[in-house]
């Protein structure tokens, strides 16, 4: 069935569809409007904009990138209350930007995309939505982010558990933890933020740690009224402050390539743990054995002191089994539990990375199959065989040292340039050449070999089971900006007109 034949009253046709209303989707929408393209629709699965910052509302949720960096370069906010902002403040910033740029009128909420299919005869994409409607578009931008499908480990017996189960990304604020025995599994970026808060509520909290994270002190400060006034009155000062933060973050790219440099900081951090945690045995268990930076470096001032509380204990045994009202650990000990909190992160299986729905491109291309072994794109943005499909925060664009919003803005500029060039040429679609994509990824993997992520002696969500890192960008962010500044015409096949699939041979496939 062609796209045309499928059109019904529930079908909307636009030039560009954006999937996901977080920082990426919002930036895309704003820049499309600036480029004079108003014929677009933003599809958001949730009931509000914000993406991560809408869904992840667990107690203590905050960003570990400084607020003046973790915001759009073109929408500076002089009023950030603290150096690092909490979820609610970031969410209200996103809402403010959405209103200011009039993006809500282009947004359909509660619109979950369940499939995306390219019709090469019509040169159009069809996006299927959960409510049965469809959106037909020339281009679409996947901006749902790599970390949005919560991971629920399949612990033996978990289906028998009679208590409450809460995942960090689906917090139930109506559940009262007072007087409850809580077991929390995982010690990643999310867990170390909610653990100190849960500890204050619960009768007892057991923290189950598989691998300890490296945690550095959080340089937390409130901006004074005078600072905010200065930032408002003299925007150049705010921009200078942002530049200083950018450069200091950017300097952290150096130890990524020089793991020996990263190791130099470890003795001080070990001393910090021993200083903060009174019980020597607990402190010992909290000290990582892999190189600093191999997993994401976390920041916190209140995580370690939580283990000095009488109602908190640390378990480093694996989970053997979950029973009706308890958790059994690999050493045979059993812990009673009313509530199980899962800080176990997100599914990063390449088959569902960036999407948990089917995407089919040119004949023979199904993304779940093409990404069976590894998620690969060109500049993290385009994938060969999927014309006019763009991704934001796609493979190897994540960062361990600076703000992802910098990367998003670079990608959005690139997408706008691609659409503009296509329009100027009057072509139907552009599709990155397979050999260009292959060469790019081979080189990237080669460059990643020398990094702390590959040589630091750990496993993390950055890596696939075979150790291949398809999550992170292994260079300075300005190098990514330079690479994505303009679309290099030679990197792409440009389809001049809609032709039958059989004529694709002329494109050299
Ligand atoms: P995560 O970093 O993937 O951490 C998951 C934790 O769960 C790890 O400690 C992991 O242990 C543990 N775990 C997973 N499966 C387990 C199992 N079967 N048994 C025992 N332990 C298990 O997930 P996250 O904390 O949600 O963070 C994900 C990413 O989101 C971060 O890296 C960051 O990019 C982002 N984030 C950022 C912030 C911030 O800006 N402050 C806050 C939250 C999240 P192992 O380490 O042994 O695998």
Automatic annotation (TrEMBL):
Keywords: Monooxygenase, Oxidoreductase. It comes from the Bacteria. One of its GO terms (molecular function) is monooxygenase activity. The keyword Acetylation does not apply. Gene3D superfamilies: FAD/NAD(P)-binding domain (3.50.50.60). SUPFAM superfamilies: FAD/NAD(P)-binding domain (SSF51905). Pfam families: Pyr_redox_3 (PF13738). This is Monooxygenase flavin-binding family protein.
């Amino acid at each position: 069935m062609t796209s045309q034949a499928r059109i019904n009253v529930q079908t909307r046709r636009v030039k560009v569809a954006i999937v996901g209303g977080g920082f990426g989707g919002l930036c895309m929408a704003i820049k499309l409007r600036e480029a004079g393209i108003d014929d677009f629709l933003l599809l958001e699965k949730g009931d509000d904009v914000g993406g991560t910052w809408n869904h992840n509302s667990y107690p203590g949720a905050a960003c570990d990138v400084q607020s003046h960096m973790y915001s759009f370069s073109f929408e500076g906010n002089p009023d950030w209350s603290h150096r690092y902002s909490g979820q609610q403040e970031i969410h209200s910033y996103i809402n403010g930007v959405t209103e200011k740029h009039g993006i809500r009128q282009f947004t359909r909420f509660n619109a979950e995309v369940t499939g995306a299919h390219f019709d090469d005869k019509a040169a159009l994409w069809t996006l299927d939505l959960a409510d049965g409607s469809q959106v037909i578009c020339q281009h679409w931008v996947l901006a749902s982010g790599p970390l949005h499908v919560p991971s629920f480990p399949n612990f033996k017996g978990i289906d028998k558990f009679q208590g409450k189960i809460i995942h960090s990304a689906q917090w139930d604020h109506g559940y009262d933890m007072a007087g409850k025995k809580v077991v929390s599994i995982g010690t990643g970026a999310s867990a170390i933020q909610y653990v100190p808060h849960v500890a204050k509520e619960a009768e007892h909290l057991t923290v189950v740690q598989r691998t300890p994270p490296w945690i550095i002190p959080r340089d937390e400060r409130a901006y004074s009224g005078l600072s905010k006034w200065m930032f408002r009155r003299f925007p150049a000062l705010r921009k200078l402050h942002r530049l200083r933060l950018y450069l200091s973050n950017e300097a952290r790219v150096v130890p990524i390539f020089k793991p020996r440099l990263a190791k130099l900081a470890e003795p001080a951090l070990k001393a910090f743990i021993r200083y903060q945690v009174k019980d020597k045995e607990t402190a010992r268990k909290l000290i990582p054995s892999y190189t600093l930076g191999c997993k994401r470096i976390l920041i916190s001032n209140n995580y370690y002191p939580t283990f000095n509380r009488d109602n908190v204990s640390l378990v480093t045994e694996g989970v053997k089994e979950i029973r009706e009202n308890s958790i059994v650990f690999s050493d045979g000990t059993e812990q009673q539990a009313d509530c199980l909190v899962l800080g176990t992160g997100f599914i990063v299986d390449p088959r569902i990375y960036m999407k948990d729905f089917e995407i089919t491109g040119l004949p023979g291309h199904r993304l779940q199959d093409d990404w069976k072994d590894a998620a690969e794109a060109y500049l993290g943005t385009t994938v060969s065989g999927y014309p006019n499909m763009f991704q934001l925060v796609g493979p190897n664009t994540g960062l361990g040292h600076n703000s992802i919003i910098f990367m998003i803005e670079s990608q959005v500029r690139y997408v706008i340039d691609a659409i503009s060039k296509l329009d100027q040429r009057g072509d139907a679609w552009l599709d990155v050449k397979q050999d260009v994509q292959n060469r790019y990824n081979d080189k990237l993997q080669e460059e990643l070999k020398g990094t702390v992520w590959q040589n630091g002696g750990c496993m993390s969500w950055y890596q696939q089971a075979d150790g291949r890192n398809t999550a992170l960008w292994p260079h300075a962010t300005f190098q990514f900006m330079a690479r994505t500044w303009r679309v290099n015409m030679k990197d792409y096949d440009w389809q001049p007109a809609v032709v039958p699939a059989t004529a694709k041979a002329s494109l050299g496939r």
